[in-house]
Amino acid sequence: MGRSKFTIKDIAKRAGVGVGTVSRVLNNNPNVKGTTRERVLKITSELHYVPNGAARMLVSRNRSLSMVGLLVPLLENQFFYEILKALHDRLKKENFNLMIFNTEEEYESAVNHIVEHQMAGMIVLGDRPLSEKDRSLLRSHRLPYLHVDYYGEGINFVRYDNYQGGRLAADYLMGRGCRNVILIGEAETSLQQKDRFRGFADRVNSVHYPLVYSEINIPNGSETYGLSKRLMNDPDLDGIFYFSDEMAYGGIQAKRDMDSQVSLIGYDDIFPTKFLNLSTINQSSRRLGTEAAEGIMELIGNRDHEGVTVQRVFMPELIDRGS
Q1: Residue 134 in contact with residue 106, Cβ under 8 Å?
Q2: pTM value?
Q3: What is the rounded CA–CA span in Å between residue 252 and residue 198?
């Protein structure tokens, strides 16, 4: 019997799906909706389609069908590394590979690469949003994408509630009797920082607590040691809320060196924090990475159906270590 004259494109057209979906079905990739898989297999059988041996080898070697692109502005934050580890672990269990794009200025070239190589999906880690041009390109190719630690109207995301985390930080410092507090953040203000500091201010104001607070933003987190020492020389200062644990590490060292009684709290609860006895707001990096993997796989499995939305928000937790 001669080989079928039909191609994978013919099957995709008749099934009303993309070529990538047909390829995943033929390669037993689990991330295809059951009804879609049945439809593709039925049409494959009806057309007596038999993949060319060389073509099947090529497809099996084409990792793009099970590849997820990850856009990261800067891999310099321990919290991002911990998310990345959990994300990789979960995707690996489902035979997905992860390709990392470290993008400092813009996403366009990375997005183009992901689309050109027909990757299964894309994850955006961090604060910077995609441009309308990038979103349009992804939509036109029906390539699902998901934001992590960021949110906005009409996009898919998984995140923790930073506003609520800021309120918890305020409760901690008010609970320790603080009256004069400094909020230390990054000079390049992110959506996360805005939400945390806004939550702090709203919580203090909502209970009419007699607390005076001000904000200092610095360009480099490593400068917090010297800054914290200078601030602790003020006898009226009794509390500091740092945007992140990494910024708070300089503060906890300054407090020890000066034998200060100023109350400190960080944010994230990354791995080293518990060994420094630093109070913080916990947002589980492992959960965030795992949920991001689950979310993108859900979107990939439903990529042939519009309107599927992943928007998951988790509540942070106060970790009181008495700092």
Answers
A1: no
A2: 0.77
A3: 24
Domain ranges of the chain: 8-61, 65-160+286-314, 162-282
What is residue 270's DSSP assignment?
A: -
d(CA 25, CA 41): 8
CA atoms of 229 and 235, how far apart (whole Å): 12
pLDDT tens readout for residues 12-23: 888 888 877 887
Token pair listed for 105: 């200025």
CATH architecture entry for 8-61:
Orthogonal Bundle (1.10)
C-alpha span between 99 and 129 (Å, rounded): 19
Separation between Cα atoms, residue 140 and residue 101, nearest integer Å: 21
Domain formed by 65-160+286-314, architecture: 3-Layer(aba) Sandwich (3.40)
Which residue bears the tokens 């906005």?
Answer: 152
